[in-house]
Protein 1
Amino acid sequence: METKSDNQNAGWTKLHLPLCALLVFFSGTFLKANGQELKIVKSGHHSFEVPASYLEERENIPSFWLTTIEEVSDFLYHTVRKGRIKVIGTSAGGRPVRAIFYGKPRAEEGTTTFSGSLGFRDVKAYRGPDHDKTVYLGLAAVHGGEFEGIVGMVNLISVIETGQDLRGKEWPEINKIMEQIDRLILIPMVNPDGRARIPLRMEAYQETDHTVHEFLNTGGNPDGTIIGWPQIKEFIPLDFGKPGFPGGYPNDAGVNIQHDNFFGTLQPETQALFDLAERERPDLVINMHTGAVYMNLHRPFSEPVLKPAFNSLYKYVHSKLASEGLQYTKNTETETNPERAPQSVFNLDGALNLHCGALSVVVESPSHSFSGKTKNGKTAVHTPEMLLDAQLICHQEAMRFLAESGGRSKWTPAPKR
């Protein structure tokens, strides 16, 4: 379900967004019996109670920090010239899901399904005659309350289009590596419903207290306490009719896309991703999330044969992060050990792997809202600038890994017949 875009028309999105996509606002304040001030946040057809203090925005928001639906849309239609913007689907709440495409797609389809190619012992039969093309897919904001991935994706697009991120910092390696990859697809906001539910551009910094971020991201109770992780995953879909705030995790149907019913009726956002993956047959999917002390790649629940590829990817990314001071230590031998990677459960990334054969990996970023603590109790402070550097380094090194390793056809070559 793709539509051509007019990249010159920056106002297109505001004219065509459904009304519910725009109606995210405060509707007065009132005091609870315990004296806590609450605000009513309306998003689409739903209203939620949120402690007023949780909706305080950061002062002096950096110019490179673009995270809202309107900011991202305006940026894309004003900036993208080398790439092409397409609407690949519509969210449960009626909001467009946009992707930006660079390079040429695979020209022809294969002769079998992905599963069939595994049975045949040669993924080339699924990937098609140009199986050796390398295709990179970047995802952000599968959880709408995780802003860091959005910022990273927007600034990556700026680098590709202008040679600089929105701070004016040049990233020559990114554009050099871009020339070695055949196809690049970036989705800055997979879950616009979840993002629209949080009426902030940037959360206030809370030192080491994660309460506000978790309330806005994973949801909370009327008294301001958080539902908690992984407790938020116990009920999918969430009942928006119950008291409390669902956070940015679910779409407007109450479903956490990262844990959709992958073998049942899919949410429209998930279906859009599956359709895209079927057409493009990506080699590597980088799925940006927020939830780490230092940026960390998670080992996916995927085909065992892809373990060596993940181990190599982990070393590429973590080595550069460590050398730039964005890991626990600068000891690259320690920081690049892939055995340290947390093991993911079956989720969207495992489903994408089984759907199209891609190595799909969750990357967890630190939060701009609070600082985590290391095992020895040290506070790991990340400035917004450091968070952006980590995002761009991750994409840069993941693309480098793809370009230098050659993609899925090289990772799992067919046996000699």
Protein 2
Amino acid sequence: MWQGKRARAVLFVALRSDMLEWALRKGGRWDAQGSLPLPADGGGMAGVAGALRQLATRWGDGVASSPGEVRVVVADYWLRTATLPWNRALQRDVEAAAYVQAQLAAAGHALEPGDVVRHGDGLPGRPVLAVVYPVALWAALADLQRELGAAVTSVLPCSVLAWTCLPRRGWLQPAMLGVSDGVLAMLLRGAGSELQEVTVRQGGKPMVTILRQRALMREAGAVAAAELPVVDLAPGEPVPAHSGQHVIWPRHPAAAAAPSLYLQLAARHGRGGAAFDAVQPAAAMTPARMLAAGAVLALASLMAGAAWQTSTRAAALEQALAAPAAPSPVAQARRSEAETVRIRHVNHAIRTLNMPIAALLRAMEPPQDLPVSLLNVQVAEAEPATGRGTLRLQAQAADSNDMARYVAYLADRRPLTAAVLTQHEQDDTAPARPYRFTVEVRWQP
């Protein structure tokens, strides 16, 4: 008799700034739970990796039943975040990666090989939040996955999970949310369901109030709401008097057997899949996709049969033409080395003359609303077979935002096909301290 699909046990892991917490949930109930301290001497990501290894070892000693999957919530303390200005490049995957990389570099977040970057979808004209998961964290989670034999199916920042607690009032309505876990304080800002800015500081609920006041002071004419909604991950910490903080989650005291609020927040969100999730789930195999896959396989079989017939005919034709050709009575004269050099120079001159100089200059010219000056342009020889070429631009911008905007602008101009920021520095010798930077641009006629 069919008993139904057995519920998989889910291991929830919370990487807080000062400890690692874990709890196992199965069949809608919390099973085992525990915590491990992180080094108090600022061990950094090495301390996190050590705690994850210790967790895997404890599991190997039979501390609880084996999980079917692992979901992780990470304190923003361990991540890097930046708010980016919206750009059309964000709507195209390849250009979006270059644009986000340039903006993060301008914000001082140089990416390392293996770093995982996620960013919001963004609304046209609205800021976009980018989150960087360091490669060391990713490697530590990969080791945990291998030791437990359970897939890590979701890795999300605490800020993103907290933002889901905020009631939705409209796509474009600005919102502000405070978060406190007793050690860290966060102020989150966005519009509707879109999280756009994350500010993290040491401190609890008093620091949340300070961050809110600073944010309002930066915006001339901003009107503060009477209350600030707060996600309270440290309910034992008192709310400062006259702070206007209003706790929206949790609404009720936690049960005695429940794990920490960090872990409950992760369980409340459910399965991953948000734009900020470091783990992007694969598409489910629905009946429609199965039908499409069958059609593709059938088409592939037909194509393979046609290719076999074609190759058979080609082999027969090649055999028929295999007889050696009669030698030509006139031997082909060999070119001298000097003639070869002259031909090479002529071909180079022809390719240079064929470059779309006017179109390239128009594409590189900054728009009037973008204060960027071109200082130098270096041209590499175009590829003979494809005609594609590379330009190396040196330019100067008033600030990092203008620099990033210009890189994204180049990527959207034809005949340019891609633009990557390769180097930048701030000129401290000039009074205005402008940014000087180098962009490598690919073009194709």
Protein 3
Amino acid sequence: MTPGTPARQPKPDGLSARDRNFHRGLAAAQAFRAREGHLDVSQRHVEDLDTEPVRLGQWISNIRRRWDHLTSDRRQALQDLGLRRPAIDLTDGATEK
């Protein structure tokens, strides 16, 4: 630590930043689904959660892209909410000749 730099204090909830971000995104998705009845969220949608904006569209996009790296508990929480594993594009943009 350099002089004049405040020491990092652990958060009172004991969660890492990654865990807090996941739970914030999940709470925003739950609020959106309760209000709208679906999770077809545009990429740029921002959900106001307790006066704190959550970039929900970006969060869902990232979750889908990183699906295979999520813990089983996180995948289950997302599935309980209605999010499913993204479909795999077997064509990978290639065309047959």
Protein 4
Amino acid sequence: MIIESARELVANFETEGQGGDFSIVFKSRGGSGDVAFNRDYMPGLKVLLSRLASIDTVIKAVTLDSGPARSAVAAGTMSAAQLRIPETSGLGIRWSS
């Protein structure tokens, strides 16, 4: 659960790892109505990335893992630029090379 400006967002993620190396798995959005899952996906992801940037986190890699994304990348119809999250350029995220 993520809270932004005292508003609870329905956005779930998991972490694994230890020390300074860990992975974050941000769960996908799906369903609708009463069975909606992660309905605040984009706001939640933006809050998570902003908070990571605020503690000077360096992101080593981002992997989009979905059937349609894997198919599009394999077919050459999706590029890395298309995987960038809109409106995150001001978050101060550092990417390792």
